[in-house]
Amino acid sequence: xxxxxxxxxxxxxxxxxxxxxxxxxxxxxxxxxxxxxxxxxxxxxxxxxxxxxxxxxxxxxxxxxxxxxxxxxxxxxxxxxxxxxxxxxxxxxxxxxxxxxxxxxxxxxxxxxxxxxxxxxxxxxxxxxxxxxxxxxxxxxxxxxxxxxxxxxxxxxxxxxxxxxxxxxxxxxxxxxxxxxxxxxxxxxxxxxxxxxxxxxxxxxxxxxxxxxxxxxxxxxxxxxxxxxxxxxxxxxxxxxxxxxxxxxxxxxxxxxxxxxxxxxxxxxxxxxxxxxxxxxxxxxxxxxxxxxxxxxxxxxxxxxxxxxxxxxxxxxxxxxxxxxxxxxxxxxxxxxxxxxxxxxxxxxxx
Amino acid sequence: xxxxxxxxxxxxxxxxxxxxxxxxxxxxxxxxxxxxxxxxxxxxxxxxxxxxxxxxxxxxxxxxxxxxxxxxxxxxxxxxxxxxxxxxxxxxxxxxxxxxxxxxxxxxxxxxxxxxxxxxxxxxxxxxxxxxxxxxxxxxxxxxxxxxxxxxxxxxxxxxxxxxxxxxxxxxxxxxxxxxxxxxxxxxxxxxxxxxxxxxxxxxxxxxxxxxxxxxxxxxxxxxxxxxxxxxxxxxxxxxxxxxxxxxxxxxxxxxxxxxxxxxxxxxxxxxxxxxxxxxxxxxxxxxxxxxxxxxxxxxxxxxxxxxxxxxxxxxxxxxxxxxxxxxxxxxxxxxxxxxxxxxxxxxxxxxxxxxxxxxxxxxxxxxxxxxxxxxxxxxxxxxxxxxxxxxxxxxxxxxxxxxxxxxxxxxxxxxxxxxxxxxxxxxxxxxxxxxxxxxxxxxxxxxxxx
Amino acid sequence: xxxxxxxxxxxxxxxxxxxxxxxxxxxxxxxxxxxxxxxxxxxxxxxxxxxxxxxxxxxxxxxxxxxxxxxxxxxxxxxxxxxxxxxxxxxxxxxxxxxxxxxxxxxxxxxxxxxxxxxxxxxxxxxxxxxxxxxxxxxxxxxxxxxxxxxxxxxxxxxxxxxxxxxxxxxxxxxxxxxxxxxxxxxxxxxxxxxxxxxxxxxxxxxxxxxxxxxxxxxxxxxxxxxxxxxxxxxxxxxxxxxxxxxxxxxxxxxxxxxxxxxxxxxxxxxxxxxxxxxxxxxxxxxxxxxxxxxxxxxxxxxxxxxxxxxxxxxxxxxxxxxxxxxxxxxxxxxxxxxxxxxxxxxxxxxxxxxxxxxxxxxxxxxxxxxxxxxxxxxxxxxxxxxxxxxxxxxxxxxxxx
Lengths: 351, 451, 402
Description:
heterotrimer; A: about 350 residues; B: about 450 residues; globular
């Protein structure tokens, strides 16, 4: 239930006793986090004007899809995957390769065919491709857990990046792929920022509902049981491996959808968007928001997107360091969270 | 379940043997094809392998003691390299003369904190019964503050590094020489009273120490090498501070090693980004160290510095081996690695011992970082990349085994080189990670499993 | 987790979307305020996208500083008919992605219609389709990729295309008697573009590329790639680098590996940082590059002022190019009198003939390409002879023609 339903005890008492106030604030941390971040978002939208807020809204939607999907894996299987950006990239590259119809591109890419598919035909291909990759990777990675899994997922991210960069016959390497098609339904093209934001929000809604459905279904209950006690669940006769693999593949497919959306939104992609660091940042978002909570992931993504803009108001910080400063803040937040609130802002479960 | 694991282990051995044979055959075939290139690849492999080996050594020491991955390790490698850059910025290309009093102050504070804690643990505990605790606190606080101020001075005046550090070098040498002389004399003159021996060794120590101090003070050329020591020590101090300030609390409550991993990931993220803010994100070379000219040898070329790096790796390995196998400290470290709870019950001060392990680990990482920085160049992201390579090397060699770490490091260096013989060079990283996944799948205990 | 919260957030988002949809499209910016008030006239607002961080850092910084120098000169002299010019700078980080973000920020938040930049071809090609679609002028002093010629009607540059650079390099290689070549290329769009045009000309003349390697931008150890290249026993090595640092390091490591053949490259490895990194190893390195004419008085004055203000000089030609861009912009603003009139500005650029620091009487053709400038061949001097004045190399003259 929404946290607001919790009673707010003794506001009066807290005036006299600071300790009580701190306890009160702590007991309602979720509420505070919600309020602060939403207030921040609204203030920001007012301050910066609608144009840029729409752009940021799209960025938020894409990060949110990624965070929600990754949270399925991290929150429900306990596997801390740093390789999620790989699936994101597979989705993005499939959509880009299949839909790109660049005219001045021919000059630089002699041998690469253009397919010129519509976006909505390419996207399912990307999603399925990511799913297949996830099956293959999952079968190999299934035997690893905890820190070893983290290590191999680092490896997956780096391998994916290198494939995007070096498999030039498919991805055009460092040149990147230009003029990725915008989504189109009938005669309606999502080519302005606002309609694209609407589409991204629809995608996000679908992903959120899907995750919510997965989590609350009987399938999700088995997953919860696995996280609580894998051995016991196995004893009850559940194929733990299959459950974990399924959720891993589903999550990868959602990430690929986000990737497709991203490619189409920016209309240009190159390997630099799929570096390991982005993946680490994604993991921080998920942990920040909290494990096994969809709302937490949304909030985490929102914080992440707004953090960068918030950094611009820090006095004495040159603009070019904003990204780095955000990284410092995220790092410190991670440390503090692990120290005081290992379940994340809104999470129910610890790592 | 167990039988299945055993089966997989057996199957893995066969597969690994087959793969190794295939790899060896491939290498032999390639060597026959072009011996010159093979020699050059071997030299390249040796020089990067030495760095990987150093990283793997520190890594495996820390991991097999506390059993969680401390990603600060990567940041320590970057800090080692950037420490040298920071202290020698006036001699580097594009150094922008970064010398920021705030940065220096942060590190001085960390050093002061660590020294205060170390004094507390070593002296305070022993003297507690006899002396007034207030006096003790004041004394250790004063000492720590002095040390912090001294560190601050050293960090803010890198151009006078040789002058500032000459007393420290002199005292260190004096204590070391005095200790050695006393030990030798004690062996030679069994039964003699301690006092005269002490006086003699003290005089010897002071003379040699003063001479060394003067030597350092008179040689501005020593600044580069002093900066190596300073940055290794500072990186080590940060490691101790992190352990004492963060991980101890987390370990008391955590159910899973992932908590520490994520926390240290936060540390790594923050330090990497902060490095990029202070020093900018572009790569930079470190100043020229000795041995920068290459020698032609057996159809290949190798720099003297690379040979030195290999030497450092081997010396580090030998030192660590001696420490773990021959000293009392080493035995307690191993005891904690085997079972921390039992070690605690037996009366080992595990916090102190683990702090020392973190210090050594961070020093190894910092050394690896600065050696690789001198060999090629430094950049803020180098920490993450080096850490992953050290991690892979220790997994390949067998986590928890020092021999394994060295073998794994050099093996990884060689595989990276020979692996791209027929592939394009940009697939190097892919090769190392494929090796990692292969090993973890079929040979999870590595080449030389922990005993 | 509960469905209520999820519903709630979407309920919250709907009014936000409605508000966004109803809001008038052009974002209100401070400069758009009516000028009826007695406050001084608002300045012309011009966007700048340069790579202030990342692999093109040196270029972006120099270019940005040269622009500031020019702007301050213009404003100190009273601006354009009394109106000052204000630069709004964003970091495009040498990547298409960041260029798109920076572009959106400039056009959506700051409402500029004329953007000077970017420093890198990749960034330029990322932002170009957007600029073309929105009718925003993109005017670069640095981006050299041949494909920028085809990028659109609103895309201009004073940097010479790599197509010409490649032909010059190919000719130079052939004229120097190089018949077999090994290439090492940074995996970035700029460096790939340079390699492609140079190799195309070299192979057309009958040369052969015996080995080629690429490297990702974040590595610092090139020895394994170089080892493979030298094992193919080429007559010469060709380096196409994006970052000065990697260019210099490759030269240094090549010599460390015992390669004593000639090394050829373009532009980047003869930059000040690259030469400092490479040290003595760079001696004899030949490069095709654009350089300022020592007889050009504007150029000499700009270099002098730049040194006086920033205490260093590097990449003189690009410095001059960025400087000229600002003056050309000022001239066109004078003609159109409106910083929101991108079409008028574009027509002015097609029309203009300019003499400035990088050359006399140059102009733009119908693709927005600069015409009337040419490249030079330079050779790096031994370490002892390098000075700040000669930039570390001597000019051998124009590129040879077979």
